[in-house]
Amino acid sequence: MAGRAAEPEVIWARPERMGRGPKPAFSRADIAAAAVRIADADGLEAVSMRRVAGELGCGTMSLYNYVPRKEDLYELMVDAVSGEHELWEPSGDWRADMLRVARQTRALMHRHPWLPRLMSGIYGFSPNALRYVEHCLVCLDPLEVPNGAKMELVAMLNSVVTMYVANELATAERARSLPWSEEQESAVRIAYLAGRMATGRYPRMAAVFSEAPGPVDPEAAFGRMLWRLLDGFEPKS
Amino acid sequence: MAGRAAEPEVIWARPERMGRGPKPAFSRADIAAAAVRIADADGLEAVSMRRVAGELGCGTMSLYNYVPRKEDLYELMVDAVSGEHELWEPSGDWRADMLRVARQTRALMHRHPWLPRLMSGIYGFSPNALRYVEHCLVCLDPLEVPNGAKMELVAMLNSVVTMYVANELATAERARSLPWSEEQESAVRIAYLAGRMATGRYPRMAAVFSEAPGPVDPEAAFGRMLWRLLDGFEPKS
DNA sequence: AGCGCACTACGTACGGCGTACGTAACTAGG
DNA sequence: CCTAGTTACGTACGCCGTACGTAGTGCGCT
What we know:
2 copies of one chain form a homodimer.
Chain A: H1 28-42, H2 49-56, H3 70-82, H4 94-111, H5 115-119, H6 127-139, H7 147-177, H8 182-198, H9 203-211, H10 218-231
Helix pairs in contact in A: 1-2, 1-3, 4-7, 4-10, 7-8, 7-10
The first copy, chain A, binds a DNA duplex (30 and 30 nucleotides) through residues 18-25, 48-50, 53, 58-62, 64-65, 69-70.
């Protein structure tokens, strides 16, 4: 019976340094940084165990001493860039602070375009995620709602920001990955949508597209979205 | 010069049937259904071109006559399950209708647990996505805000639901994929978090966890989240 | 001090992946 | 009826994650 039932499985629970043998050549931070560098430069699909090992200058299989499965490498990456969040002394205006948090998260995801995709699959609270959530809660001190609601606010904020940026990036990446210019890509897109709208099956959507004065301003749309979200948490007067 | 600069690239823009040769053995719907069956049974990572071809009973490379790249297969899958959305005559109460939409989306994602992960990477409006959005807009007819705001409402609703279910599924899958029971998994998780909280570095989070009476009711939390979101769109009185 | 063992390092190898490419069969348009 | 465009599909290439075996290393115990 018995035997190894698979190790702790939550990578943050396993100690970085074991007691016995020679000391490791790298830290988790080194590995995460290497993986982040690769993903930033060549995209998430370029992050392979071989490539990360190459970046570090070690054999491929040596990586498995630090990271039991590739999925854990992803968790390391998310935690590493979460550490880039700059924290500040709360202003006393929780809405202003939350807007600042959201804008910072959006900037972070633009710097690391692979981040939204990984956010959907992450399970637990990494060290830097804990720091981040704690900071949000401190900023929410002036808000007079139950603590649970504050957690839910943080979760919702992250959700909408993540998906908003994911959409931003999906259209941008389409334009970049193909040998077309962005105008051509968007022209094809518009033409397709126009064709669909012309069928008359989607009158409400057609109305939306026809009355749109031009391309939407992403910054303004982002701000409106956040404002509406925060409105839902304002205590009833 | 020139030559082929890569085809239309938006799979919905390319016609399903070409003019000339023998008639295709399958439709896109067949292929999508096969892929969905595999993903439902064995997870998204089991969806490979070979496996789908096997399910259809054809050679692997024959699939590329229907689907130029694997990414397009994913789009087909998302569109296929989006067609499972049941549409109804609007009730006149836009909040009730939006709640129903959200609950239906959540149920859909529980039926197809791979869906949230794919939603983050999808680019355009597939036929069934158009149907779905149009239905939401119809339900929002009684809401007196600009049309653009209605689109933004639908987008936010989908974002929040997607990430909520993604979190639900991530914890559930962790528990299932390991040879542990769910209680053991959650025990490890709690122990880890308790250890972190004991450091005193996260007093606000510690307060949240300490005052939680027990495991949260996912249905109730889901409902609260939606209610707050919709509140942000209620026209100012 | 010195032994033993837990750990690190890493090469090899296996099965599976996406898909480029070449070939044969087939059918609709001229 | 011919022929050009399409379908069908087998082969092959270069990746991928990672199981496993072996050798070296230095901490902790006796």
